[in-house]
Amino acid sequence: MGKSRSATAIIAHLLSTHPTHHSPTTALTLLRRCRPLCEPNPGFMTQLHLYHRMRCPDDIASHPQYQRWCWERARKESLQLGQPPGSEFIVFEDEVAGEEKDRGGEIEGEKEEGEKGEKNAETVEEYRCRRCRTSLGNSHFRIPHTPPPLPPSRNHNKNKSTTADTAPACAHLFLSPLSWMRPTLAEGNLEGRLECPNGKCGQNVGKYAWQGMKCSCGEWVVPGISVGRGRVDVVNVVGRKKKGGEGRI
Fold it and tell me: Taking the model in full, what pTM does it have?
């Protein structure tokens, strides 16, 4: 009927030929002037918006944003089947960040050195193996999570419900998949240990569970890829901001 798939193909063509003049929504509005019944399904519209955010490149398959989209879809489908995602779909964020920087070039504020360069400096948390000091990642690749509210504590003297002022720091530092984890994650297990990539060290620094992991704060993080706070040193390092959150120091 030319309602969904054909309409999606035409919208993609409009975006490709006029990327600055149209968005998926405006292209669909234009198409409906000629064929009012056009209605791409939600999945197609999601991919069209992704294509537009990618700036409609000729090479889609190698684009970092598309790789992330494939990775998220593969991860969710695999977990529904109780299986780990295929290693070919895993996106290692430190590698992708470098590709994004190469694609995007210099960002505003880094084109001139001197005083402007100082404004781009930032403090980054770097996580290092406590035994051998090998870098295991930094805060650019950390997956944030919000601890659940603390249960109220009972003040027996005033018979009022109060909340504790502070909560203990989480025992886990959750990270995106990073290239040093590749040999372990490629084994095809649902869960396992993470060891320091330094061959002379091999210290157990964390663990992973594709189905998710419960943090010490009580929050559930999916996927759960973490290094133990007690097994790493957190070092504040001053570096320069990189496009895509590269986080190189």
Answer: 0.68
